[in-house]
Specification:
The complex is a heterodimer of chains A (117) and B (111).
Chain A (H helix, E strand, L loop, with lengths): L3 E4 L2 E4 L4 E8 L5 E7 L6 E7 L2 E5 L6 E7 L2 E7 L7 E8 L12 E2 L3 E5 L1
Parallel strand pairs in A: 2-11
Antiparallel strand pairs in A: 1-3, 3-8, 4-5, 4-9, 5-6, 7-8, 9-10, 9-11
Chain B lengths: L2 E3 L3 E5 L4 E8 L6 E6 L6 E6 L3 E5 L2 E6 L4 E6 L8 E7 L9 E2 L3 E6 L1
Parallel strand pairs in B: 2-11
Antiparallel strand pairs in B: 1-3, 3-8, 4-5, 4-9, 6-7, 7-8, 9-10, 9-11
The chains are: A mainly beta (117), B mainly beta (111).
């Protein structure tokens, strides 16, 4: 089973709203990631959690707040977003949480299509 | 830094063979991934190469030459459902284990 699930599939929110994106995996993976992807662009890394601790923050604005409640769950809390934040938000996980192994592969969830009005 | 280059778009005919190239310049090298991504969906893992040579997996094969900083994804017996974006991602070294994605190649398969 290489499934990563994300909810919701679609989200429309106003600039004053607060919402959360959720991601879950039950593969025992120790690293989890948030990516942002705009149309016809590659995924851009936002955050990495390793063993439930934030290990990488790619200078993401504070209106995006990640949270890792346990080893299977990853949330992204959204507040005061801008229209340019509209994108596909992808969650991924990989087995290794400390550095890497030679075969460490990222598995992606289906994404949340976010529209900010 | 890392620089990954792929063609932006390719077209091919159903039943044919297509080769999608990826060239890279990275600080060290620790593996190259190919992903398939249909429009509006998540990237799906296709292959991983860390040693030189060809890895075959059904209709898809991936080749790597580390000395040339070059990889290709070969798709045989093309089907309409193969129309998608194909992303090359390279893992460098220097402490970061996160692959960097290329811009992707949009493949259009027509009848």
């Amino acid at each position: 089973d290489t499934e990563v699930t994300q909810t919701p599939k679609h989200l429309v929110m106003g600039m004053t709203n607060k919402k959360s994106l959720k991601c879950e995996q039950h593969m025992g993976h120790r690293a989890m990631y948030w990516y942002k992807q705009k149309a016809k662009k590659p995924p851009e890394l936002m955050f990495v959690y390793s063993y439930e601790k934030l290990s990488i923050n790619e200078s993401v604005p504070s209106r995006f707040s990640p949270e890792c409640p346990n080893s299977s769950l990853l949330n992204l809390h959204l507040h005061a977003l801008q229209p340019e934040d509209s994108a596909l938000y992808l969650c991924a996980s990989s087995q290794s949480g400390t550095g890497y192994t030679s075969t460490d592969t990222q598995y992606f969830g289906p994404g949340t299509r976010l529209t900010v009005l | 830094g890392q620089n990954i280059d792929q063609p932006t778009e390719m077209t091919a005919t159903e039943g044919a063979i297509v080769q999608i190239n990826c060239t890279y310049q990275t600080s060290g090298f620790n593996g190259l991934f190919w992903y398939q991504q249909h429009a509006g969906e998540a990237p799906t893992f296709l292959s991983y190469n860390v040693l030189d040579g060809l890895e075959e997996k059904g209709r898809f094969s991936s080749f790597l030459s580390r000395s040339k900083g070059y990889s290709y994804l070969l798709l045989k017996e093309l089907q309409m459902k193969d129309s998608a974006s194909y992303l090359c991602a390279v893992r460098g070294s220097g402490g970061s284990y996160i692959p960097t994605f290329g811009r992707g190649t949009s493949l259009i398969v027509h009848p």
